Amino acid sequence: MSRFFRQAGDSDSESESSEEELMSSEGEGEAPKSAAAAAKPAMSRFLRTAGDSSDSESESESDEEESDISEDEAEKEQQQKRSRFLRTGSDESESEDEDVKRVVKSAKDKRLEEMEATGKVMDNALKINDWVAISNEFDKLVRMAQRQQNVAEPVPPFYIRTLVNLEAALNSAVAKEKEARKKMNASNARALSAMKQKVKKVIKEHEVDIKRFQADPETFEREWQAAAVPETAAKSKKAKRKAEGEEEEQDEFTTVGKGGKAIQFTSEGIFKNLQLVQEARGKKNTDRAEQIRILEKLLEVAATVYQRIRVLLALVSSRFDYNSSVTTHMPVDLWVAAQREVDQLIAIVAENPAYVVQEITDDYDELAERSPETEKDGVVRIRGSIISFVDRLDDEFTKSLQNIDPHGTEYVERLKDEKGLYCTICRAQALYEQYKQEDPLGRVIMRRLEHIYSKPDAVVHALEAAVASADIKPSIILPADGKTSTLIHSLCVHLYKSDNSFLRTRAMLSHIYHYALHNDFHTARDMLLMSHLQESIYSADVATQILYNRTVVQLGLSAFRCGLIKEAQAILQDIFSTQRVKELLAQGVHQQRYQVLTPEQEKAERQRQLPFHMHINTELLEAAFLVSSMLVEIPLLASIDNEEQRRKTISKPFRRLLDFADRQVFTGPPESTRDHIMQASKALQNGEWEKCRDLIQSIKIWSLMPEAASVKDMLAKRIQEEGLRTYLFTYAPHYSTLSLSLLSRTFSLPLRTVTSVVSKMIWNEELSASLDQAAGVVVFQRIELSRPQQLAQILADKVNSMVEQNEKTLDNKLGVTAGWGDRADGAKGDKRGEQTQERRGRGERNRGGVRGGARGGRGARFAQGLGSQMAGTQSRR
Amino acid sequence: MAAALAASLPAPSAAPAPAAPTYEAIPASMSKVIDIEAEIPLTSVQLDGMVVTKIIKHSREAHGWTAHGLLLGLDFDGTLEVSNSFALPNHASDDDDKSAKGIARYQAAMMRSLKEVQADDSVVGFYQAMTLGSFLNQTLVETQAIHQEKLRHGGVVIVHDLSQTARGNASFRAFRLTKAFFDAYKRNNFSTSSLINHRLTFSSILEEIPLKIRTSPLLSSFIDTLTETTVRSPAGTSPALATSSAALPPSFSVLDLGTSSTSRNLERIIEAVDAYKTEEGNLGYLQRQIAREKSRADAYVAKRKEENAARVAQGLAPLPEEDVSRLFKIPPEPSRLESMLLLGRIDAYAKSLEQTSSTGLVKMYGVKADSGV
Lengths: 877, 373
Prior knowledge:
The complex is a heterodimer of chains A (877) and B (373).
Chain A: H1 2-12, H2 14-34, H3 41-51, H4 57-71, H5 76-102, H6 107-127, H7 131-150, H8 157-179, H9 186-205, H10 207-215, H11 217-233, H12 237-250, H13 252-257, H14 267-280, H15 288-301, H16 305-321, H17 332-351, E1 355-358, E2 380-383, H18 386-403, H19 409-435, H20 438-452, H21 457-469, H22 484-496, H23 501-517, H24 521-531, H25 533-536, H26 542-561, H27 565-577, H28 581-584, H29 599-608, H30 618-639, H31 643-646, H32 652-663, H33 673-685, H34 689-697, H35 708-731, E3 737-739, H36 740-746, H37 751-763, E4 769-772, E5 777-780, H38 787-814, H39 827-851, H40 859-876
Parallel strand pairs in A: 1-2
Antiparallel strand pairs in A: 3-5, 4-5
Chain B: H1 2-8, H2 30-34, E1 44-48, H3 49-61, E2 68-76, E3 79-87, H4 96-116, E4 123-130, H5 138-150, E5 156-161, H6 162-166, E6 171-177, H7 179-187, H8 192-197, E7 206-209, E8 211-214, H9 217-232, H10 239-246, H11 260-314, H12 324-327, H13 337-372
Parallel strand pairs in B: 1-3, 1-8, 4-5
Antiparallel strand pairs in B: 2-3, 2-4, 5-6, 6-7
Helix pairs in contact in B: 1-4, 1-5, 11-13
């Protein structure tokens, strides 16, 4: 049989055969369902061979034979006889086929013949009561009938007739079976019951036809012939196929409607079609584009509000379904359509408060029309989730931005869609405010916040203007004075009130980011410190961690812009010492040198990447970091006088670069940002502050910084001051006095500034000198430590650290790792805490007694921890 | 080296009795003298003048604390009388096995030669030179432990402080291991619990035995004359007297401020503290390891409990409770001996530093006061 299939396919076309394969696989998918989950060994084997088009018929035949033999030894002979008979039967049909091949026949006729051949085999099997064979043949037949439907041809009456006959035969067989159970073997009996199920199902499918057939078989057949004639009259295969294609387009609903009649655009029809589409959803061979088209047409005819909501819900989700793979992004036109439809949906729901879309509802009849009147409380609740649509829409937008080349015009075009998306989000926000649903409202607001927190004011204004013009009324809008921070603030405050700690964290970070972006460094820093996020961020999810990194980096940049060099250096230090800046900011995948990422990891990594317009320029970041490192580190380097201190570097990356630059024999004119900074550092070391300033200011990347000019001025001033400090550190040993006015001339700083810098250095004990106000000079005093003195200092340090280590070990031993917070614990913890406190208190006093007041100097820790505890123990007694 | 020593040591056989009559002081109780096998615990050590000079000479010629040698003599009525000593070659660190063998051979040859000339040849301990008051180290403890096991009444170790000697007061101290430490050492168990059980600290590793130096009356009187001539030497102009006084020139070592050794002393302390820190680091590592294993074991137990609860809920028999301690190995605690010895060393250094610097300070104040007047 299968050979015949193949021939038919070959003679037809390639696409036909592929369709056949698809079909068979579909059959595989359906078969277990129809067989009520009972997997029949023989049947599945058959399916496999049928699916495998390279298998030959004889093989499958012998397979069957073998299985039968193994299944039942006793009936071996009879089985063999039968199978032999079968084979001859099929041989005959084969020879017939060969004849058929020579005669030119339409594909349709061939299919019909196939069906008839199958029917014949079934009849034969029926005679000897072999239900296994019948079951196999029946499957074949059903598949053929299905194919018939796929090419939009009415089901032949032969099929219907076979069905009716089969049902009758089945009933009689079952009746017989009840009387003589013992006679049938196990596999046969199983096949029989499976058949019963299958036939019942198929009959249900063709109920109408069968009824008509039973009523008047002849007219039914004639009708069919009449329908088939025009097609058979078509001469060339090509033309016929074309017609088929047209028919396909015209008769989209015919196939769905099954009856071969024109679809009725009534409300019932809509629900039925909806259900069909929904059932086909997620199945292997569903044509998603076609489904979308169906739904679009349905939307056009949808009359009532309820219908429109239902269709829209289905349509949007089927649009999102269009791409099955996670990696590729949604086509832009689809996205735009989905966005429009979500808008529409929200608008409908907002206009009709009697209709509510909810994720969880009571069960209701999918096929019935509902309206506020039919419901008990006058509110129609429909299953669906607008918030997930909005989420998905936003995610898809991000995904498409990730996948589009950021340097092309397409990216810019795509970015323009953000306005629409922003409006949609605001609409959803308004809707949920109307509903007063807190959880989705929080999510929507978070989405909104994420669209604006990192944007400059102008962009936010544009987005808000779009919202205002679209006449959307979320409760939080841009205030009249146009201050974006007020808007962000009110959004964030709303999120702080929500119960979701995840949203709170993200809102907090976005808020801080926004402040940092607007150069409000101190507010941003205080918020970050008060949030205590740095302690718990390690346990957060990756996206939040990335947001945290971005916030911290932006904070550093803000400090840099404000001229707070030390703070900027300290903040940026952490992220730069990892040397994986790009990865930490999710702006690029890090090349792993020693380990290879698995494809899944890499995929996850790629999904995390931020779209290009959100990036923080890493080169600018590096320039800021290196320049602030230079300003901090160079005076420090100059102040160092022994090896021990040299090792205590502040900025390792900068030190490494500097060492590398030192080692180079020839230095050409600077090209990269790093070159500039390195040469500037050297100039600063040599006291040539003007050269240093020029080099730093000629870095091109500053142009990307907002307020570049003021930043450059600030840098020039810093360089003057730090140049003065470096000069003093480097050359102080060579002077006994140094005139302040000379210093002020050399570094072209006002005398006041010079005096203040020098005084500060003296106060910080960086410079052992004094100011002689009368003569206007700095008087240097030199103290040189003798070798024993140095050693004694080192020893003091070491012993100090040893004591600290001991304390730590003691803490570990006593198990007070929780610190002084354990007093707040429950009863048990409290008890243990008390014990240890007591022990420690005692020990402390003993030691204190022995050593006397010498311990008073060992400051902060004692005062914080043990001191308070000791007070506690003493007061208890 | 310790092992080689042990191999070469003679079995604790009876020392030759004829040696006894050379001493004129015979105690009243004759029975004690005759019964040389009696277990009379050592109460003091007596060093012969010759031994003192030999040790000083050897230590000064060798460098630092590498000088060491064997003590020969006899114990007598609770007093260990050390009558002779000889130096052992310096054990270079390079070829340990070979040098140990060489030392053993040398020692055996030396003993044989001594026997041939009828000198004392019973080993009673060993001596060790040191600087700045610190002498505790692994080798010393190991060697002494072997001696204490093999020698009659347990040997003694005599330490000689070079730096003190250079300052004008020759310092000799005699030690042996305490019972508690010896017990712990034999079990080779220096874990924290063992230290607590044996009440061991660095100061209870060794116990000191009082030590006195004995010279023959003739020698004593000669030394007396030496000091007398020294006093007189600046006055007299006789060349004969001048040569005799050259053996003991007037010493101004009292005026030395002793600051030269301070920096060395400090360096040594720093070294010792660093070494101690690494030991501490080892312990810290162990602690972390234990914590990690513990958390893993806890997680395992919790998981097993959960599983069992699930199984019980499903009506299955719970899995047997396995011995968690067998699944998760707690790493063995490193020996605390080294850190204990290091602490001892730090303590000794600190003490000697305190001593020298305090006397140095007093002297400096004295000088200042003098110059001020």
